[in-house]
Design a protein that fits this description.
heterodimer, A: 388 residues, mainly beta, Sulfite Oxidase, Chain A, domain 2, Immunoglobulin-like, 2 domains, 33% strand, B: 110 residues, mainly alpha
């Protein structure tokens, strides 16, 4: 069975190049002594100035909650989560290989992908670790709060159409995508996560070439990235250059160790994360807001991965009573749903909360047990306001 | 195996480069101290003490220091992370592991 090798074994020497890029950056930083680190206190990424820099290298940028105002997240406000930073790819040189358990291996250029049928999907992406910063005790990893989530209009080709061209063999059960990013040392593992063939063949799973009407920017995985809708963001591999069909799930550390949570029936065992949780966030009012008495609109977004949002209930009295919010805006199979509820705000402090329910029977919980790696945070979001 | 395998950065090259970097850090690394001649502040986000440079020089080879500074982990949890980083190529001289672990556990503990 063919399996992709680690980037360290790639004939294109990517790992070495990536290593030099990383070490070069570190050396330059130390030589100049100031500028690079100084910038790390504020956004260092052009075009992303309003985002919170959780890490400049690899780039990890969080959207402040107050900036998540529109149903489609503008690129300049879209969060960035990188395990490794990928080098820029020259679109003219881009090649996607489809290989492994297939009868017709493919080597596709960007124009080949552009000439196939294009589909457009509005999809919410969320990092599996979004909300990790709220866990106590703390779990290791980027300490995201609410904003490692965003919704894009993604346009590209169905992964199923590409895979059909390659004619998968009956033995093929898993799709192992790999991107043009590489680890900073030869010993560190390549960032590879696989998903089962059924998810790959779903018509909503696409190789995206455009985000919000423009070519997918480099920071978001351009020129071509996977969008595996409804699943944790790490499934949507960026800078996609290889798709290998395999008999078995990928067993590298990013499948076998990371992106796993304890099983409910046996917490000593873990499972690889797939669907996002049922979750809502309150975008307005903001935590700590000073509001005036009278009608306020409580609003936010709710999403549920493979589920569909069926209700969002809102409390303005700290969870004692709940009222159904109106599900507003457009409904997409794999995108968040905007919700809103008018609230006659009376003088005094108030705690505003939102609780989402989905078609799979999941309801947002009031608390969550410890998750060793800080995934799956979807505890009811509460904001404290003062009305006067 | 790749015909260009020999061009890859070998562990020894990693160690040499790391040593150079660590040497370059030396004593002139400005930590958490504003410099009057520049509007930009030079801020090492790691808690300052005599072991800060030991951590800075090794970790910055692969990732920003912010990724460390935002963590709060127990000593045992840090030990797991540290050993994984060594497996991934983090240079470690004899005796350093305990110093680094002690720093992480006391300065970024929970």
């Amino acid at each position: 069975m063919y399996q992709p090798r680690s980037a360290a074994d790639r004939p294109d020497g990517l790992s070495r190049r990536a290593f030099i890029v990383h070490v070069g950056a570190a050396a330059a930083l130390l030589k100049t002594g100031s500028s690079a680190l100084a910038q790390s206190a504020s956004p260092a990424v052009p075009g992303k100035e309003r985002l919170i820099v959780r890490s400049p290298r690899p780039v990890n940028l969080e959207t402040p909650l107050k900036e998540l105002a529109s149903e489609v997240t503008p690129v300049e406000l879209f969060y960035v989560r990188n395990n490794y930073d990928g080098p820029e790819i020259d679109s003219a040189q881009y090649v996607l290989k489809v290989q492994g358990e297939v009868d017709n291996p493919l080597s596709l250029r960007l124009d080949d992908l552009r000439q196939m049928e294009q589909v457009t999907q509005t999809v919410t992406l969320e990092c599996a670790g979004n909300g990790r910063g709220f866990y106590n005790p703390k779990a290791a990893g980027i300490q995201w709060e609410h904003g490692a989530v965003g919704t894009g209009v993604w346009k590209g080709v169905r992964l199923a159409d590409v895979l059909r061209r390659a004619r998968p063999r009956p033995a093929a059960r898993h799709v192992v995508p790999n991107g043009h990013d590489g680890p900073p040392t030869p010993q560190a593992p390549d960032f590879i996560r696989s998903h089962p063939l059924w998810k790959a063949m779903e018509p909503h799973t696409i190789i995206a070439l455009e985000l919000n009407g423009n070519p997918v920017p480099h920071l978001h995985g351009g020129p071509a990235r996977l969008i595996v809708p409804g699943w944790v963001g790490s499934a949507s591999i960026k800078w996609l250059t290889e798709i290998t069909l395999a008999q078995k799930e990928w067993d590298g550390p990013f499948m076998a160790r990371s992106y796993r949570s304890p099983r409910v029936d046996d917490p000593k065992e873990s499972y690889s994360l797939t669907s996002l949780e049922c979750k809502s966030i309150v975008v307005h009012p903001a935590d700590g807001a000073q509001l005036t008495t009278g009608t306020q609109t409580v609003q936010g977004f709710a999403w549920a991965g493979e589920g569909a949002i069926v209700a969002v209930d809102v409390s303005t009295d700290g969870g004692q009573t709940w009222m159904p919010a109106r599900l507003a805006g457009e409904e997409h199979r794999y995108a968040w749903r905007r919700w809103e509820l008018p609230w006659d705000a009376k003088t005094g402090p108030a705690i505003v909360m939102a609780r989402a329910s989905d078609s799979l029977g999941r309801v947002q919980p009031a608390s969550r047990p410890r998750d060793p790696q800080g995934y799956r945070w979807n505890v009811i979001h509460a904001v404290r306001v003062n009305v006067s | 195996m790749s015909p260009r395998r020999s061009e890859r950065a070998s562990p020894s090259r990693v160690a040499i480069l790391a040593a150079v970097l660590i040497a370059a850090v030396g004593g002139d690394w400005v930590t958490a101290r504003a410099r009057d001649d520049t509007p930009e502040q030079v801020v090492n986000p790691l808690p300052p003490d005599e072991r800060q440079q030991l951590v800075t020089g090794r970790c910055i080879i692969c990732h920003s220091l912010e990724t460390i500074a935002q963590q709060r982990q127990t000593r045992d949890e840090w030990a797991v992370i540290l050993d994984r980083m060594v497996a991934y190529g983090m240079p470690m001289l004899p005796g350093d592991r305990e110093l680094i672990l002690e720093y992480l556990a006391t300065r970024l503990g929970q």
